[in-house]
Design brief:
The chain is α/β, with parallel strands linked by helices. It has three domains: 25-339, Up-down Bundle (ABC transporter transmembrane region fold), CATH 1.20.1560.10; 360-441 and 522-538 and 548-613, P-loop containing nucleotide triphosphate hydrolases (Rossmann fold); 449-520, P-loop containing nucleotide triphosphate hydrolases (Rossmann fold, 3-Layer(aba) Sandwich). The chain contains 18 helices and ten strands. The strands form two sheets. Strands 6-7-8-3-9-10 form a six-stranded mixed β-sheet, with helices on both faces. Strands 2-1-4-5 form a four-stranded antiparallel β-sheet, covered by helices on one side. Strand 7, helix 16 (535-549) and strand 8 (553-557) form a beta-alpha-beta unit.
């Protein structure tokens, strides 16, 4: 795969039809799930064969019961009894084999389909536009990825096969009932609608409560995740008791919703069981009188009761599974909703290259850029800004909080697209470039480094997975990180904990610098890359960055002006606009804003008043 920046002909999101799970019919949702089951049609066919086989064997046991009663229990010879018992044992053995095959294949299919579904959901999540995560909590997304898919696994791997098996048993038992005794069969046919009626009536209510229950569980997970993520802040402000009470309210809310759902399902099952056994009791009364009168044999009555019980059990199972299917419908809607979210930025169409991309020259230009964040459409972050960054040169961005410095870096990486104007790389609008190829040209050292719950090797290699151990160590040395890494319990194999909690702020930042050095990019973005370092480490890292910046296009967000005095150019931003540009000495003369910032920082020799973003 070429590392060049290739234009892509992706269709803009605005031109694609919108679609949400809320507008999907039940049939469309089944079709959506079928897409995940279709690759395993052979397994599905095997499970269906095993399902039909066990249903036939189960129905045949009724004839074995009739044979046992008529020829064994009421017969004259021990041989007839042995024969009847042997028939039942053979049928039981065959049913055990068929049940094993059915259970294994269906359970395997459920696990496999849900694994594929989870992968599809996650693969889609990592391509979504950042604005989606501004309006959707990560805890809720994780609930869909875990809780909802687990529910579907139970439905596909257990409940669905039970429902199909019960449906087959119901149909087969009904046919055999008609052959056994027509009068009693007509009584069963009259009673079945009475049993099915509550299933239909309560089904919709259970479905609504099931979806509400899933949403409330997601809220609980989201709240807990946020508190755990900010546990130091919670404890620092001694808010443990408050958070315990707030979480208890979330849990109680979820419990109350679940309680209403459980009440409806329990009532449904209880009514069905009551009606079922009432019907069986009526059949026993009528059939028993017929047997006493000699109109039917005891074996026929036993077989008839067996089949009637199978029918009743089938209806009870279907009623219980129906409630679970309603829950699954809610979970499916949530998952399909997530899968149908379309990213505002086209997904990369290029594969990962074996080597870091170095195809572009690195000439960057912002041309009359207008931009507002999706969550704040009425508050422009960038206002008609035009700015050139010469290839191989460094540009520092300075200005007060909210000036738009970080926004420019996000726009350059195409996390967002401007509403007006354009951004070009080597004269090409970056919206015409493949996002993967574009971002592989860029390395970022953010103000708050992002580290993963893995070892040091993994975190430094994140931008270049194929790098050798020697290259990783060289990058760490250049970032002045090698010494403290060697002092970790397992050196480079030490795990850093969630978000790098086992490291200090300065150590995290040096690992992020090592990651950028290893990636060896054409464009380097530094968002106050040395802000968390002590004075000695900052000096050494500045030397490393100076070497890294050589012949690379570098954009630096600077809060401390002392760190960017040697930049090739300094751009002063205020309220999303470019107000001045030049070298330090020039800006002191022509820009009142820059002069004020410089006076605040350089008025004493220690420069202890950094401008906070």
């Amino acid at each position: 795969m070429s590392n060049t920046l290739e234009p892509t002909a992706s269709v803009p999101v605005a031109d694609r039809p919108a679609r949400t799970a809320a507008s999907m019919s039940a049939r469309e949702m089944m079709v959506a799930l079928w897409q995940f089951m279709r690759p395993y049609k052979l397994v599905l066919a095997g499970a269906a064969v095993a399902l039909v086989f066990t249903a036939v064997i189960t129905l045949s046991i009724g004839q074995g019961v009739r044979l046992l009663v008529d020829q064994g229990l009421t017969g004259d010879t021990s041989q007839a009894l042995a024969h009847a018992v042997l028939v039942l044992l053979v049928l039981a053995g065959l049913m055990a084999i068929g049940t094993y095959a059915r259970h294994y294949l269906v359970s395997w299919l459920g696990e496999r389909v849900v694994a594929d579904l989870r992968k599809a959901v996650f693969d889609h999540i990592v391509t979504l536009h950042p604005s989606y995560f501004e309006t959707n909590r990560s805890g809720e997304i994780m609930s869909r990825l875990t809780t909802d898919t687990t529910l579907l696994q139970h439905i596909i791997g257990t409940s669905f096969s039970m429902a199909l098996r019960s449906a087959l048993m119901f149909a087969g038992a009904l046919i055999l009932l008609l052959f056994t005794n027509l009068k009693l069969s007509l009584m069963v046919l009259v009673g079945v609608p009475l049993v099915l009626l509550p299933i239909v009536l309560y089904g919709r209510r259970v479905r609504k409560l099931s979806k509400a229950s899933q949403d409330s569980i997601a809220d609980v997970g989201s709240y807990a995740g946020e508190i755990i993520q900010h546990i130091k802040t919670v404890q620092s402000y001694t808010r443990e008791r408050y958070e315990q009470q707030a979480f208890a309210k979330e849990v109680e809310t979820a419990f109350n919703v679940a309680k209403r759902r459980i009440r409806q399902r329990s009532l449904l099952v209880a009514v069905v069981i009551l009606l079922m056994f009432g019907a069986v009791g009526g059949l026993l009364w009528v059939g028993g009188n017929d047997m006493i009168a000699g109109r039917m044999s005891s074996g026929d009555l036993a077989a008839f009761v067996f089949y009637a019980f199978l029918m009743g059990s089938a209806v009870a199972t279907i009623s219980e599974v129906y409630g679970e299917l309603q829950r699954a419908t809610g979970a499916t809607e949530r998952l399909m909703d997530l899968l149908h979210v379309e990213s505002e930025i086209p997904v990369s169409t290029t594969a990962e290259p074996e080597q870091p991309a170095r195809a572009s020259r690195g000439q960057v230009a912002f041309e009359a850029v207008e931009f507002s964040y999706p969550a704040r459409p009425n508050h422009p972050a960038i206002r008609g800004l035009s700015l050139d960054v010469t290839a191989g040169k460094s540009l520092a961005l300075v200005g007060p909080s909210g000036a738009g410095k970080s926004t420019l870096l996000e726009l350059l990486q195409r996390f967002y697209d401007p509403q007006g104007g354009r951004i070009t790389l080597d004269g090409v609008d970056i919206r015409a470039l493949d996002t993967g190829s574009l971002r592989r040209q860029i390395a970022v050292v953010p103000q708050q480094p992002a580290l993963f719950t893995a070892d040091v090797w993994y975190n430094i290699r994140y931008g270049r997975p194929d790098a050798s151990d020697a290259e990783v160590i060289a990058a760490a040395r250049a970032a002045h990180a090698h010494e403290f890494i060697e002092q970790l319990p397992d050196g480079y194999s030490s795990h850093l904990g969630e978000q790098g909690t086992r490291l200090s702020g300065g150590q995290k930042q040096r690992l992020a610098i090592a990651r950028a050095i290893l990636k060896d990019p054409r464009i380097l973005l530094l968002d106050e890359a040395t802000s968390a370092l002590d004075a000695e480490s900052e000096y050494h890292v500045q030397q490393a960055l100076q070497a890294l910046m050589k012949n690379r296009t570098t954009i630096i967000i600077a809060h401390r002006l002392a760190t960017i005095l040697h930049a090739d150019s300094i751009a002063v931003l205020d309220q999303g606009q470019l107000v001045a540009q030049g070298k330090h000495a020039e800006l002191i003369e022509i820009s009142p804003l820059y002069k004020r910032l410089a006076e605040l920082q350089f008025q004493d020799s220690e420069r202890q008043k950094p401008l906070v973003e």
